[in-house]
Amino acid sequence: MRKRLLAVASGGGHWEQLAIISQSFDKFDVLYATTLPGLPEKSGLAPSVLVTDANRDRPLQMLLCAKDIAGVILKFRPNIIISTGAAPGFIALLFGKMLGAKVIWVDSVANSEQLSLSGKLASRFADRVLTQWQHLAGQSKSQYMGGVL
């Protein structure tokens, strides 16, 4: 039986980076989750679900996003969750870890000076935190394993 992987990313660059690494997900049953309609279809990534977009400046949206993510995780029951950011991915990693999934955070290539806020928070409980900048390896237990872009 193949393991189930939930791959989560907000729209824009976070999604583009997830799409790039998605080629390494072939041995899993994958469900993609994102915040913008049409992104999965445009990228050829399926099956997919939409979740509410959120950030720390929009607390109500964070609650709605958390509700959406919790529903996806409870229904799909992933063994592994991977995210390239941002807030929806962090929420997914948090819920996933509480339910026993292995969780992986891939910090955005745009964060070249320090880990993102979500990356720093994720490093507290993630099984693996990856940075795409070699000089950031070691910050908040992050590892460098090469850049996506």
TrEMBL record:
Protein known as: Glucuronosyltransferase
GO BP terms, alphabetized: dolichol-linked oligosaccharide biosynthetic process
Organism of provenance: Devosia soli
Lineage: Bacteria, Pseudomonadati, Pseudomonadota, Alphaproteobacteria, Hyphomicrobiales
Coiled coil: none
Keywords, comma-separated and alphabetical: Endoplasmic reticulum, Membrane, Transmembrane, Transmembrane helix
Predominant subcellular localization, coarse grouping: endoplasmic reticulum
Bilayer topology annotation: Single-pass membrane protein
Record InterPro entries: Oligosacch_biosynth_Alg14
One Gene Ontology molecular-function label: N-acetylglucosaminyldiphosphodolichol N-acetylglucosaminyltransferase activity
Compartments where found: Endoplasmic reticulum membrane
Keyword Plastid: no
Any Pfam family matching the protein: Alg14
